[in-house]
Design brief:
The structure is a homodimer of 223-residue chains. The first copy, chain A, is 37% helix and 26% strand. With 223 residues, the first copy, chain A, is α/β, with parallel strands linked by helices. In chain A, the strands form two sheets. Chain A has a six-stranded parallel β-sheet with strand order 3-2-1-4-5-6, with helices on both faces. In chain A, strand 4, helix 4 and strand 5 form a beta-alpha-beta unit. In chain A, helix 4 runs parallel beside helix 5. The longest helix of chain A has 14 residues. Chain A is elongated. The complex binds adenosine-5'-triphosphate (2 copies) and calcium ion (4 copies). The site of one adenosine-5'-triphosphate (ATP) has 21 residues of chain B, from helix 1 and strand 2.
């Protein structure tokens, strides 16, 4: 049977979760006490209902205990977030993920029995900081403390060279796994493929090797 | 010379950027018009100053044009965010990254000349949605709307099969780019390599193909 998700609070964070779950073909119930929000998500979610989730009877009548995973994405109203979480725990919902505003809020949520507490603004701050330290790294996936996959923007130093000519594997121990050019992604680029300035290279390797390669080949000194 | 960063707005998002840049050994100026925030970051940032950044003279006297990258992390006060961005563009700051609250805000920021616009709550919502849909996906990197790289935990259904035997490329159009086993990462796994339950497979492919493969081979039905 398909997993059943419910998202409480349709702000930017909760709303984005609803959209992405829907994109992935999941069943998702969207809940907010604000009618405008509910209308906004009526066509995105499987169902959208107006309800105040701090009320236990309301939660019961929604059959919330039958959902596989409930996400509490209430932000500024910490009291609502805490009360809602308490009810969900008491109703024995299988998986409860809650957005926290700060460390104190997180502590309370953990004590109440939330299964996972997330800090979207904080975590995204860390990701953005990583991305801005180097202008050439667009995004990354940390595989371990030592290895990563990074998206690197090709500049003029690699322009018009083929993968064979660059020979990044021998020189830096790095492999190019895919090349993104405008809207297309080539997930098994040929050895004779020429790189264009502006291409985005998906590279796997050790962090120190990637940094070395980046400094040698991707740090444009014209800026 | 070390790159100079400045972060305007010390909420959760901006504050987290300041902390992470500092962790990475970068020089960072932290700015907020709220004195409490400035005091909170006095010991984290290289410098922390109280200033209203919608005032051009204030920005000039901070020497903001000499910074390599300025991040505007003002949230709810969209007018402050827009005015600050306008000033930074006029002062010709080399890189300006701005947090947007919604699509309309983003459009204005782009028109004004912001170099990058970010949506932390929305982007983290997408990440969280990915993580909760499948317990088998540990982390992922979205290459485009259609393609991703995911970290998948191998279960008993793939245990003791070699990459050749599974033939994921023919069956699902997915490539295994690396295998993580305990602390080791093999970035060019051999075709005859046998997978163990508990291994983490780094897979590249189309989202729909990855989902299909995951349902067939990674969704343990014992739960
Ligand atoms: N008790 C409640 N029951 C149902 N919905 C609630 C309750 N309390 C708050 N909400 C809803 O939660 C949503 C998110 O709340 P918040 O105040 O954090 O908005 P936001 O700042 O736009 O969120 P975000 O930071 O994710 O953008 C709002 O749409 C609000 O109506
Ligand atoms: N004109 C301005 N000059 C300097 N700082 C400003 C200005 N306007 C707002 N700020 C500061 O920006 C910070 C972030 O603003 P916001 O209202 O988004 O807080 P927040 O919701 O806590 O942020 P976050 O969503 O990142 O947690 C606040 O600390 C605020 O004092
Ligand atoms: Ca909020
Ligand atoms: Ca690392
Ligand atoms: Ca905010
Ligand atoms: Ca997607």
């Amino acid at each position: 049977m398909k997993k059943q998700f419910a998202v409480i609070g349709l702000g930017r964070f909760g709303g984005s979760i609803v959209k992405e779950l829907n994109d992935q073909g999941m069943e998702v119930l969207a809940i907010d006490r604000n009618e405008e929000k509910v209308n906004e998500f009526a066509s995105v979610a499987t169902h959208a209902v107006m309800a105040d989730t701090t009320d236990e009877n309301t939660l019961r009548s929604l059959g919330i205990r039958n959902f596989d995973h409930v996400i509490v994405a209430i932000g500024d109203n910490i009291q609502s977030s805490i009360l809602t979480t308490l009810m969900l725990v008491e109703l024995k919902v299988a998986h409860i993920t809650v957005k926290a505003q700060n460390d104190y809020h997180e502590k309370v949520l953990n004590k109440l029995g939330a299964h996972k507490v997330v800090h979207p603004e904080r975590d995204m701050g860390i990701r953005i900081a990583h991305n801005i330290v180097s202008k050439n790294v667009l995004d990354y996936l940390e595989l371990s403390d030592e290895y990563s996959i990074v998206e690197l923007i090709a500049g003029r130093r690699v322009h018009n060279y083929s993968l064979t000519e660059l020979d990044l594997r021998a020189k830096y121990g790095c492999n190019i796994m895919a090349i993104k050019r405008e809207e297309n992604i080539d997930v098994s680029p040929a050895a004779e493929e020429k790189i264009n300035s502006g291409d985005i290279l998906i590279v796997i390797g050790a962090d120190s090797d990637i940094t070395r390669m980046e400094q040698d080949l991707f740090d444009d000194d014209t800026e």
